[in-house]
Amino acid sequence: MPPLSTHVMRVLQGLFTLLLTLFGLLLVTFALSAFSPVDRVLQIVGDHASQSTYDQVRHQLGLDQPVAVQFWHYLLNLLHGDLGTASATGQPVLQDLLHAFPATLELATLALIIGSVLGMIAGVLCARFAGSPLDLAIRTLTLLGNSVPIFWLGLLMLALFYAKLQWSAGPGRLDDIWQYTVAPRTGFALIDTWLSGDSAAFKNAVSHLVLPVLLLAYYSLASITRLTRSACLSEMNKEYILLARAKGAGEMTILLRHVLPNIRSTLLTVIALAYTSMLEGAVLTETVFSWPGIGRYLTTALFAGDTTAIMGGTLVIGVCFVLINNLTDLLVRATDPRVR
Fold first, then answer.
1. Residues in domain ABC transmembrane type-1 (predicted)?
2. Domain range for residue 28?
3. Helices 307-335 & 294-304, crossing angle to 10 degrees?
């Protein structure tokens, strides 16, 4: 067993790497904003403002100072939780993100749970019956999940299940009757409607979640299924599997008791990548379903040319990406002795 000093050094190295990565993210995010062709001053004062007004606002924003000084002030503002003010909404960017991010987190987390469970089950079935019609059918279904544009499939789901069959609710998180009556205590629609004690509001929230969650789950299921199948088939050719077969173990028993535990690090990595992809790539889904999450917030900011809001949203997504990846590395080390 390694000495305590070795573990301490590994922890310090991990923290240093994390801080260095976050600093690089801050630097890149700031550079994209600082060298953007969009004039932040004109967004505030308008095209017909006088030169003195333009210069005054530019001085108030600190844009007349060197880039290094601007970056230093940006870091100091971040330490105080100040991401600037969004020109599109007139509110602090941090406040907008705190309102929008729970919606994206709720959508992505539910989709990940469904996609991961179904994806691993489908991947194991494909490995168990490799080359069979079942394997071909599942692989074709997952191939469509990676090929069909997500916005087109979302529009089809709305047209069929909402407009024609009326099996689910339409765009948004809640119908208008509950939109302004349910108190937003946590920012998560399911939790807020549950805490309100109104069962009809809770059912309405579930109905609104069904289509976007299933759509995102389908896209995460596609990659998880394919990689689970590939990892299982790779393990099935190893010597310990031959030994298990020689002892009389069935194929499904081998897959569940021997193969899956040995590919858990791969599965954790794949699931983490799927989660980060949904957090940063739910823009089209949120736009199609009018879901008031961070993806839709960024889309609105992009069309408005609001660089402050874009920088804040990009920073939040980047931080989530870095933290999820580092947490996944820790889980892989904790659960897989071979990595340790």
1. 101-332
2. 4-79
3. 150
At 244-266, the pLDDT tens digits run: 778 777 778 888 888 888 888 88
Query: pLDDT (tens digit, 9 = 90+) per residue, 28-57?
Result: 878 877 777 766 777 666 667 777 777 777
Among residues 79, 106, 121, which one ends one of the domains? 79
CATH of the domain at 299: 1.10.3720.10
Q: HEC states along the chain?
A: CCCHHHHHHHHHHHHHHHHHHHHHHHHHHHHHHHCCCCCHHHHHHCCCCCHHHHHHHHHHHCCCCCHHHHHHHHHHHHHCCCCCECCCCCCEHHHHHHHHHHHHHHHHHHHHHHHHHHHHHHHHHHHHCCCCHHHHHHHHHHHHHHHCCHHHHHHHHHHHHHHHCCCCCCCCCCCHHHHCCCCCCCCCHHHHHHHHCCHHHHHHHHHHHHHHHHHHHHHHHHHHHHHHHHHHHHHCCCHHHHHHHHCCCCHHHHHHHHHHHHCHHHHHHHHHHHHHHHHHHCHHHHHHCCCCCHHHHHHHHHHHCCHHHHHHHHHHHHHHHHHHHHHHHHHHHHHCCCCC
Q: 156 with 59, same domain?
A: no
Counting the structural domains of the chain, the total is 2
